[in-house]
Specification:
Layout (H helix, E strand, L loop, with lengths): L17 E3 L4 E4 L18 E7 L5 E5 L7 E9 L3 E2 L6 E8 L5 E10 L2 E9 L5 E3 L7 E3 L4 E8 L9 E8 L6 E10 L8 E8 L6 E12 L5
C-alpha cells in the first residue's frame, strides 16, 4: 500500500542516525548551508561535514525511518567548495538508497571536472540494471557552492507494468526554483521499496580525495513533489 503521509525527519545531521567511521564526520557551524538552527551546535545553525583523510575510509549518515516505501522523495543541500578530487576521473557515491535486504537501487555519484562538481543519478530496475536518469551525457552540474537537490522514486504497480518513475531536480540559488530536471518514466521497478538511505561518503572513496564536503537540510517524504 502506498502512503501519502509526510515523514517528519528534518534531521539535525549526525544525531538520531547510524554512522560509519564517525571520526571523519563532524556536526558544526561551518557546514551549515542556509539552516535556521540546531541544538547540536552552539552559536547558530549546524550541518554535517564529511572530511576526507587521503584514504578510502567511508563516512556517512544513515536514516532508518523509511519502511518499505514504494514512493520516496528526499532532498538535501551540498557544498563541495573545499573538496579536492582528481578532475574527471575519480568519483564516489554520496547517496545510497536500499531495501530491507540491503539491495541498493538508487545511487548518487559525485565527480569533479572542469572545476565544477557534478552528480550522476541512477535507479535500478527489476532486472538489476542501473538506469542513468541524467541521460544523453547530462549531469547535474553545479559550481561547487551550496546547491539544493531533490530525488524521487515511485515503484511500478506490478512486475512488467512499466509504470515506475525516477526523477532528479537541481534547484537555483534560492533553493526553490528548479533549473534542471531529468527523469525516466515507464520503468520496470516494482520490486523497489525504501528501507534506509545513506548520505555522505558512502562508497568507492578514492585515496586521492581530500578536503571536505558539507550537507544540510536533509528531508524526506512518502510523496512525489507536488
Amino acid at each position: 500500500m502506498r502512503r501519502s503521509t509526510q515523514i517528519a525527519i528534518f534531521l539535525i545531521l549526525g544525531l538520531a542516525a547510524a554512522t560509519a567511521n564517525a571520526a571523519t564526520l563532524q556536526v558544526n557551524n561551518t557546514a551549515a548551508l542556509g539552516g535556521t538552527g540546531g541544538t547540536a551546535c552552539s552559536g547558530g545553525p549546524c550541518g554535517l561535514e564529511v572530511a576526507f583523510q587521503g584514504d578510502t575510509d567511508r563516512a556517512f549518515l544513515q536514516d532508518d525511518s523509511p519502511n518499505a516505501e514504494e514512493i520516496y522523495r528526499f532532498a538535501f543541500r551540498i557544498d563541495t567548495t573545499n573538496l579536492t578530487m582528481v578532475q574527471g576521473t575519480t568519483r564516489h557515491v554520496v547517496g545510497w538508497v536500499r531495501d530491507a535486504s540491503n539491495r541498493a537501487f538508487m545511487r548518487l555519484e559525485l565527480l569533479q571536472a572542469n572545476n565544477k562538481s557534478r552528480i550522476m543519478f541512477k535507479c535500478r530496475n527489476n532486472g538489476n540494471n542501473w538506469q542513468v536518469m541524467n541521460s544523453n551525457g547530462k549531469w547535474f552540474i553545479f559550481d561547487n557552492d551550496d546547491t539544493r537537490f531533490m530525488f524521487e522514486m515511485q515503484a511500478g504497480s506490478a512486475p512488467g507494468a512499466g509504470d515506475g518513475l525516477c526523477r532528479g531536480t537541481k534547484f537555483a540559488a534560492d533553493g526553490v526554483t528548479p533549473n534542471f530536471v531529468s527523469e525516466r518514466t515507464g520503468l520496470n521497478n516494482s520490486t523497489n521499496s525504501v528501507d534506509h538511505i545513506r548520505v555522505g561518503a558512502v562508497k568507492d572513496v578514492d585515496a586521492t580525495t581530500t578536503g571536505s564536503h558539507y550537507f544540510d537540510e536533509f528531508e524526506s517524504y512518502r510523496t512525489l513533489a507536488p
